[in-house]
């Protein structure tokens, strides 16, 4: 399979920034038509423009503005996808938020916010996409985190959602085999807006990024493009015997 002949339809959640944006552009560069979703339309338009630069036609990019915490929005994403492309081959469940806090400094509200954004929509959109993916022998990648694989008490609730994603991956990899391959890509600290959006101050974030050179055998934070290329590999035919895997992309941290 050459770089540009994937010729598939890929749906990427959280494609308006960071890892999701990089993944949409990477899959576009390999010839996939892309469905890009998120709440921020200006950002989605920027992702679309980057996909056109990789050679996609207007008709190969579908923008669906959607809030994944709203059930009807998830249903609309799948409806619009099938209306436009008639089919779906690849689902990248990337959208997510981080809320910092351990047991003592988190709340039930934080719990609901995290699970209602990171876990429940992933379950529901995958459920709706599954018949199309099964029909096409498609592939799913869920974006977890290394915080779901090792205890990081300062982000306890977030880490719990990410561990939950890993088990979702492993269970549905079993259930949907051999037709649909399902894997998790679990990034280490990656340079995106995630941490700043979580309320971490700019100074603390800079320090946290700086710490990565001491924590990671590859002494730096990751780049969204590095996560995107891993996702692109896992959804390609080059990964035809890989399913149920939880792959850290973390510079060797865990
Ligand atoms: P960003 O904040 O840049 O991207 C998050 C994406 O999720 C945005 O596109 C955002 O879109 C979307 N999103 C968030 N909430 C909703 C919602 N309610 N409805 C629809 N879309 C939503 O961060 P990253 O790129 O870093 O995050 C992507 C994934 O990577 C997340 O799952 C994160 O947990 C994971 N990850 C990131 C790491 C890092 O260090 N950056 C490390 C490990 C994992 P919009 O705002 O337009 O709605």
Automatic annotation (TrEMBL):
<keyword id="KW-0560">Oxidoreductase</keyword>
<dbReference type="InterPro" id="IPR036291">
    <property type="entry name" value="NAD(P)-bd_dom_sf"/>
</dbReference>
<dbReference type="Pfam" id="PF13561">
    <property type="entry name" value="adh_short_C2"/>
</dbReference>
<dbReference type="GO" id="GO:0016491">
    <property type="term" value="F:oxidoreductase activity"/>
</dbReference>
<protein>
    <submittedName>
        <fullName>Uncharacterized protein</fullName>
    </submittedName>
</protein>
<dbReference type="InterPro" id="IPR020904">
    <property type="entry name" value="Sc_DH/Rdtase_CS"/>
</dbReference>
<dbReference type="InterPro" id="IPR002347">
    <property type="entry name" value="SDR_fam"/>
</dbReference>
